[in-house]
Amino acid sequence: MSEKAILQVGNNSYEFPLVKGTENEVAINIKTLRGATKGVITLDPGFKNTGSCESAITFLDGEKGILRYRGYSIEQLADNGSFLEVAYALIFGDLPNEAQLEKFHSDIKSKSVVDEDVKKIIDAFPKNAHPMGILSSLTSALVAFNPSSVNVDSEEEMYNAIVKIMGKLPVLVAWAMRKIKGLPLNYGSNSLGYIDNIMKMMFEKPNEEYVINPIIKNALDKLLILHADHEQNCSTSTVRIVGSSHAGLFASVSAGISALWGPLHGGANQAVLEMLEAIRADGGDTKKYMAKAKDKNDTFRLMGFGHRVYKNFDPRAKIIKIAADELLNDLGIDDPILDIARGLEQEALNDPYFVERKLYPNVDFYSGIIYRAMGIPVEMFTVMFALGRLPGWIAQWKEMRSRKEPIGRPRQIYTGENYREFIKLEKR
Ligand code: CMC
Fold it and tell me: How far is the CA of 371 from the centre of ligand 1 (A)?
């Protein structure tokens, strides 16, 4: 791109090249800013205007409500794809053919056994531990059981690290849930598909044969696809920045899980359900909670609403809302909080506060209703998000390492004390 950006600092002017993406997004490349200006930097808390990388994985247009993985629209992927196919496309760039998919699945299965000693770590957690804490600790612990570092220049080593985490993380997810439910830690079966196996590992009771409900399986497959990547969000940026220090894949993903946990990010799905339940327990007065959300003296926010990037409908929320309706209908469940959710959405969509700020339902608004209908405890909702996001984290980590990106290390503007003398303790 030949155009340039011109920046005036004091009496001096500086030129910076513009970078254009394949969807015509434009950035000012300020790589030379600090050197050229002898110390001036940009300041952008929350990185609202800052691109941290160039990436070929996910395209998102928040104004138009577009989301594509590797060029494929989220709507087509959710309707026609399977989670494993989508994971493959995210990680390796294209949808797999049958042989590639079969090999990927078979390699994942061959690496899915977790060291028995991991069970001792799980034993040490209290039963009321939050499963996100369990999952992030266990993912980190896997580093100790797989200590050799990955040579990222070796395609084979990179591939092995990827299939290992794709195989082992679902086991940890299932075990985190079984721990809080007091169920024995089991394995599924390598004769099953990826999603079927996850369901068996999560839901099988020790004294009953587990029969997969195809309606729940399809809904889970779809939900995981919808969560699989979302470009440079908080947890993904965490994975990339931790990985940029050359920390391994398990350690980077473990950090991503911790970042996802917060209620402004993946933890919102749990917070939404708790909010809907609280509204129900309080007599279902949605207007009262709308008023609280708008009150600047109240810290309450309408959970599941608003998004840093989407200033239009989150396309994932549209798909999830329909999926929630279908699932509850197919399973014959009448969940009163679905009505509360619908009521809140209608009010928000017609309320000037939400309209002016372009606050729409996000991916987390209806997903909890689906998880609950599947029999997943509320504390596990964010864990399910993590399971879905795993391929995205892997793809972003792989891209960052393959492109030999430099260590992530933002600068700051210091606002503290100027130089002062140390005063000995007895004189203070
Ligand atoms: N309820 C009430 N007001 C809100 C909400 C909300 N959910 N979200 C944003 N606002 C207001 C906010 O108070 C601010 O108002 P003003 O301009 O008067 O100060 C304005 O809208 C802009 O908000 P912001 O906090 O500056 O926007 P942000 O881009 O920094 O934050 C967000 C985005 C997702 C953190 C925020 O919308 C939020 O807290 N939402 C609720 C939590 C949630 O649902 N998170 C899930 C996000 S999607 C999945 C994921 O990322 O994992």
Answer: 23
CA dihedral sign of residues 300, 235, 164, 250 = negative
Note the pTM of the prediction, 2 decimals.
Answer: 0.95
- Any idea how long the chain is? 428
Give the whole-angstrom CA distance, residue 153 versus residue 157.
Answer: 8
Q: What are phi and psi of 300, to 5 degrees?
A: -65, 135
For 261-285, the pLDDT digits (tens) are 999 999 999 999 999 999 999 999 9
Question: Which residue, 217, 59, 200, 165, is CA-closest to 386?
Answer: 165
> Which residues are CB-neighbours of 35 under 8 A, at least 6 positions away?
none
Would the CB of 397 count as within 6 Å of ligand 1?
A: no
Nearest residue (by CA) to ligand 1, atom 46, is 265
* Element (DSSP H or E) covering residue 139: helix 131-145
User: Taking Cα atoms as reference points, which of 148, 133, 217 lies closest to residue 386?
Assistant: 133
pLDDT tens digits, one per residue of 370-409 = 999 999 999 999 999 999 999 999 999 999 999 999 999 9
Question: In whole angstroms, what is the distance from residue 314 CA to residue 173 CA?
Answer: 27
Phi/psi at 425 (nearest 5 deg)? -50, -45
Residues of the chain with pLDDT under 70: 1-2
For ligand 1, mutation pick of 362, 381, 393 (most atoms within 8 Å of CB):
362
Mutation choice for ligand 1 from 307, 316, 320, 384, CB with most ligand atoms inside 8 A: 307
Q: State how far the Cα of 188 lies from the Cα of 200, in Å rounded to an integer.
A: 6
What are the structure tokens assigned to 85, written together? 């196919």
> Is 307 a catalytic site residue?
yes
Residues pairing with 334 in the sheet:
none
Return all residues near 407 (Cβ < 8 A) that are at least 6 apart.
Answer: 244, 245
